[in-house]
Amino acid sequence: MKLEMPGLFDLQVNGFAGIDFNGPDLTADRVDEALERMRATGVTRCLPTLITSSFEQFARSARVLARMSSAAIAGIHMEGPYLSPEDGARGAHPREHVARAASLDDFSRRQDAAGGRIVLVTLAPEVPGAVTLIEHLVASGVRAAIGHTTATPQQIGDAVAAGATLATHLGNGCAQMLPRHPNVIWELLAADAVFASLIVDGHHLPPATVKAMVRAKGPGRTILVTDAIAAAGRGPGRYAIGAVDCEQHEDGRVSLPGTPYLAGSGVTLDRAIANTVRFTGLPVDRVVAMASTIPASYLGATTAGTVTADWDAEAGELQVLRVHV
Ligand SMILES: [Zn+2]
After folding, report:
1. What's the distance, Cα to Cα, between the start and end of the chain in Å?
2. Omega cis (within 30) before 94
3. What pLDDT digit, counting tens, does each position of 6-54 carry?
4. How far is the C-alpha of 6 from the C-alpha of 18, rounded, in Å?
5. Domain 8-303 - what CATH class?
6. What is this structure's pTM?
7. How far is the CA of 1 from the centre of ligand 1 (A)?
8. CA 4 to centroid of ligand 1, rounded, Å
9. Which of 31, 200, 294, 324 shows the greatest Cβ crowding within 10 Å of its Cβ?
């Protein structure tokens, strides 16, 4: 079946096709190359995502991105450094650079380095100063997202009351072992003001979890992200996200070598759409919205261009044929 869809919009992408947005060698040409490769998968707009690192490294990548005029860059997603320092919840974020407190001054320095282009910040509500920072972000038009957290229900409630509106890659970036209830997943699922982003690469979340989460949030408040690293669009092997080494396995899973911890993904957004249709049974156009118009309107932005694709309902496969920008 032929599908005409809006250009896809990825709120969380750390790198693509061998290019690491967090790497010390990032250049505008390399970013353009990554954007072009992403476009072939239907993604016409995205938020390059900068994870926890030294301020110098953050500022270096942020300046490269800030100078670019490409409409494909809808802003910068800053994930960290105000995150849980705990193993598991921290994910691939290097502990040495995780901040002990969220501070307005620190954020302002980062936003200055980024030329004001940070539009989304993922942070953990339990980090001292996080709630005050959320209020400041929201007042200045920056979206605040909850992630990489061990927050209590009260702390999550406080963050939501302060204006946090997204659960970043819900079901990941939390402890490997959780009490059955209450826990961060149930609290964020139940918070009606909060959208959820999901990494549907077949590794971060089992199919039943994806189905149950989409049912609980509703397709209108679910956003598909890739959380892709440089491994996306490439084969198995060793890759880097900033100073962190990662490995893409034969089955496509990306992890910190020798640990159970996932470290971003190798999935592309077109494949995430196909996976989500298979896992949830939702019509393909509802799922396409979760990767295009819904993330765009969440940010107060628009999608760009259109994508012609072939949807094979029997096989559950989506093939991008043409992208018009
Ligand atoms: Zn993350």
Report:
1. 22
2. no
3. 999 999 999 999 999 999 999 999 999 999 999 999 999 999 999 999 9
4. 26
5. alpha beta
6. 0.98
7. 34
8. 31
9. 200
